[in-house]
Amino acid sequence: MKRIRFSWKNICLPISCINNTNQKTTCTTNPSKERLLLLSKQTSVRSRVYLSDFSNSTISLNDLSNSYLIDIHIFTFEELKTITQGFSKYNYLGEGGFGEVYKGFVDNSVKTGLKAQPVAVKALKREGGQGHREWLAEVVILGQLKHPNLVNLIGYCCEDDHRLLVYEYMERGNLEDHLFQKYGGALPWLTRVNILLGAAKGLDFLHKEEKPVIYRDFKPSNILLSSDYSSKLSDFGLATDGSEADDADFTKSVMGTEGYAAPEYISAGHLTTMSDVFSFGVVLLEMLTARKTVKKYRSQRERNLVEWARPMLKDPNKLEQIIDPSLEGRYSLEGIRKAAVLAYQCLSHNAKSRPTMATVVKTLERILDLKDIQNGPFVYIVPVAGANKVHDIKCN
Ligand SMILES: Nc1ncnc2c1ncn2[C@@H]1O[C@H](COP(=O)(O)OP(=O)(O)OP(=O)(O)O)[C@@H](O)[C@H]1O
């Protein structure tokens, strides 16, 4: 489901690397002395650069990449064109609100020190301030925060009006395509729980930052899967690092994807970490039911999944009616009940009654340990090369 804006307010950032005269600019000039002085004063008190540092012009992209970014490579547009074979249709992976995504391959010959690996290259559609803000949010947040459940940003390109991002390539694409069966059979129960556990750990990590990062766009298409089905959050364009809370333009614009945003955020623009918890509840409900949160062609009563299904989550007799039939009863009964109660709590209209992501992680870990799976399929444990975990693969 594509991202929509509930309302729109242009965000005007001073874009230090855009050259209005249209000359070729690659953001590689040295930071000014005054800026570095200011920066060194700031570093003594905090360890991370925030998005607001850019809107206040206290830092430039050069300062950020020279002093703060972790293992980030700066690519030229030509280099990215080469590694994606000229953004060829054969390398095309898909398109989201930000722009098109292409598969590529990098190694030491592209940039010294670069590990040989497949990558995903995301190219920003050229459309002014908000597009640049989204690109910058990805660089500022993913360039500084590293975690096994956040997609790894390998590098970026900021040349003339080109804005691109280079990520590690995730072999199994996004959860949405698996959950709603674009590919093959239904995901087994424990694989689903494990995927959501990974995503929950990613959110928990973001929320535990000194200034919590609010992800703002949690949904299945933003959860990417590796070959062994471990999950990582991607698409940080709408994320906010907590530094923009006083910015009038920011607080006025409500953004996200229809069906996932918390009610208090839609109605009053009230954005907290609990907004992410609500969105997590929506995805958990989608995982339990294999139904999309909003679907036009469902009956009026069932159109909004949350409104229709939430009352049934706490009633074990009704619960069975909404569980994904393609699971064919192959799940832990206790596990599915616990997951349903967890979804119910995350979807509370009162933000304060929702659990924190730390509690969600603990609950999902307990559910993952419940192995009383009814009529279980033959489970073949595949050791995955390079990974220290084993995962169950359903064999028909
Ligand atoms: N790192 C990656 N590895 C493999 N595939 C990726 C990667 N990043 C994105 N993709 C794929 O590219 C396509 C577009 O992804 P993108 O994140 O831009 O948009 P989206 O999340 O589908 O939509 P929206 O931006 O509206 O939320 C999707 O099919 C996604 O699975």
Automatic annotation (TrEMBL):
The reaction(s) this protein catalyses: L-seryl-[protein] + ATP = O-phospho-L-seryl-[protein] + ADP + H(+); L-threonyl-[protein] + ATP = O-phospho-L-threonyl-[protein] + ADP + H(+)
Binding site for ATP: 122
Keyword annotations: ATP-binding, Kinase, Nucleotide-binding, Serine/threonine-protein kinase, Transferase
Domain Protein kinase: 87-368
Record-listed E.C. numbers: 2.7.11.1
GO molecular function, one term: ATP binding
Pfam families: Pkinase
Top-rank EC class of the record's enzyme: transferase
TM region positions: none
Family indicated by similarity: Belongs to the protein kinase superfamily.
Protein name, UniProt field: non-specific serine/threonine protein kinase
Organism: Brassica campestris
